[in-house]
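Handout, page 2. Input:
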Amino acid sequence: MSWTVVFANDVAEAEVNALPEDMQMRFGRIARLIAESGLMAMREPYVKHLTGKLWEMRISGRDGIARSIYVTASGQRAIVLRTFLKKTQQTPPREIALAMKRMKEILE
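Output:
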């Protein structure tokens, strides 16, 4: 069974669609790599563990860097919870908190 990348809700999908075009393309490339290889084969620089069940897709482009925070779920799915442009070295705690809130909404 292959992996799929899905969005937690319409807001999470709109966040990806709001990224600059080159970053959207990079997101799509990483999503295809996940589908083809599975999450277990993915490593940096594409994905990185954040905390608990949360992981991030690492997206870069001409306008800077972005992150898509996701969680894995049964059925071999990566569920994208939050996507944002990153302006600091570390992922801001408020972004992690928002992703955790969305995770609780979909996993309940």
